[in-house]
């Protein structure tokens, strides 16, 4: 990069010029390998970073379809759709079966919203547990078996609900979205199942508030975004240091860093796509993005596959049932609904089944 005072040199795993096709980016970035790791039970994340208009959303999703009757050309599909296709192809050839599910989140003004849930968006709580790390409570997840189904489902919410048509040219500054695919490979009862994740994160524009021209409510939104990206940058800077020299990593400084904690410094595998503009007017932001990516490249993780034993799965399901029962009881009390009287019927000659789980026969 040629700057006014000196030339800056950066080294990355792969560099694509403006003429690179979507297929070349998919194959050259290692995206196919990430999908295979997710099937093997690893937590994988790819996130796009850069200023507004640099091509983050296009790289991940390609151009948005005008309508169902006018889909985007196959050659223009982004990393997400191509990954969907590869996972679906794997599911058809997997002898033990491969179940695929997806979730879709938005972080807006430090609130986590579920974009798949019907009705107006509402904030979901972000929890932490020793076994799961940070996770979104009550997040909706949907199963899918075809590329058309998952693409239609995600693209119908591709424009965030917080998006204002009056400032449409600033949409990259306004929001950040995360799409997570969960491949699960069942195994024989004696072996643990493999459950991985493949998470796509479309970060908001990295430019400073004064450069967005935002004011009032929009300025508040832009400030929240800048705080999130600064928190992410701080975590990356600390993680880039040798393990012996690292201090506490402040993942809790923002919702974004909490959700990316496992991907950045835990047991996950992460791909960062740094998007820059060729315009000389954007030189300052270009250098900022490249420095950001250069620090991220020095971060190392210790990937571990996620194996779920039958006993652990049953325990998790039982815990979820207990939580749902408590929520149901609370709602009934709030609505002042009387409990329906029940009677127990004993069938002679039928021994009781203790601890039986109908899902396993």
Describe the protein.
The protein is of the alpha+beta class. It has two domains: 22-305, Kinesin motor domain (Kinesin); 310-338. The protein has twelve helices and twelve strands. It has helices at residues 22-28, 31-39, 56-61, 79-93, 147-155, 171-174, 209-212, 217-239, 255-259, 261-265, 283-297, 310-334; strands at residues 43-49, 99-108, 111-114, 123-124, 126-129, 133-136, 142-143, 176-185, 193-195, 197-202, 269-274, 307-308. Helix 2 (31-39) crosses helix 4 (79-93). The chain is globular, with a radius of gyration of 23 Å.
List the SSEs and their pairings:
Layout (H helix, E strand, L loop, with lengths): L21 H7 L2 H9 L3 E7 L6 H6 L17 H15 L5 E10 L2 E4 L8 E2 L1 E4 L3 E4 L5 E2 L3 H9 L15 H4 L1 E10 L7 E3 L1 E6 L6 H4 L4 H23 L15 H5 L1 H5 L3 E6 L8 H15 L9 E2 L1 H25 L27
Parallel strand pairs: 1-10, 1-11
Antiparallel strand pairs: 2-3, 2-7, 2-8, 3-4, 5-6, 8-9, 8-10, 9-12
Helix pairs in contact: 2-4
InterPro entries: Kinesin-like_fam (IPR027640), Kinesin_motor_CS (IPR019821), Kinesin_motor_dom (IPR001752), Kinesin_motor_dom_sf (IPR036961), P-loop_NTPase (IPR027417)
Protein name: Kinesin-like protein
GO molecular function, one term: ATP binding
């Amino acid at each position: 990069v040629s700057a006014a005072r000196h030339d800056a040199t950066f080294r990355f795993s792969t560099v694509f010029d403006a003429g690179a096709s979507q297929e070349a980016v998919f194959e050259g970035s290692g995206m196919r390998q990430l999908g295979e790791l997710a099937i093997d039970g690893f937590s994988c994340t790819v996130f796009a970073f850069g200023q507004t208009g640099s091509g983050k959303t296009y790289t991940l999703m390609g151009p948005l379809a005008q309508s169902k009757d006018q889909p985007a050309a196959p050659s223009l599909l982004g990393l997400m759709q191509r990954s969907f296709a590869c996972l679906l192809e794997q599911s058809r050839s997997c002898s033990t079966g491969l179940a695929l599910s997806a979730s879709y989140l938005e972080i807006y003004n430090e609130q986590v919203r579920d974009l798949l849930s019907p009705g107006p968006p509402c904030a979901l709580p972000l929890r932490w547990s020793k076994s799961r790390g940070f996770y979104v409570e009550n997040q909706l997840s949907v199963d899918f078996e075809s590329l058309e189904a998952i693409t239609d489902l995600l693209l119908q919410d591709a424009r965030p609900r917080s998006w204002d048509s009056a400032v449409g040219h600033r949409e990259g500054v306004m929001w950040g979205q995360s799409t997570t695919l969960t491949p699960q490979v069942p195994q024989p009862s004696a072996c643990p199942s493999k459950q991985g994740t493949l998470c796509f994160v479309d970060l908001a524009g990295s430019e400073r508030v004064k450069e967005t021209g935002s004011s009032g409510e929009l300025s508040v939104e832009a400030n929240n975004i800048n705080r999130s990206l600064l928190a992410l940058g701080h975590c990356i800077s600390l993680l880039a240091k040798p393990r012996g020299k690292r201090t506490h990593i402040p993942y809790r400084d923002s919702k974004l860093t909490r959700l990316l904690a496992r991907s950045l410094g835990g047991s996950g595998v992460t791909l960062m796509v740094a998007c820059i503009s060729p315009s000389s007017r954007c030189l300052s932001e270009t250098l900022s993005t490249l420095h950001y990516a250069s620090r991220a490249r020095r971060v190392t993780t210790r990937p571990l596959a996620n194996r779920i034993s039958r006993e652990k799965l049953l325990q998790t399901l039982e815990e979820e049932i207990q939580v749902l029962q408590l929520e149901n009881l609370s709602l009934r009390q709030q609505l002042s609904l009387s409990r329906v009287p029940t009677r127990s019927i004993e069938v002679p000659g039928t021994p009781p089944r203790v601890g039986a789980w109908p899902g396993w026969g």
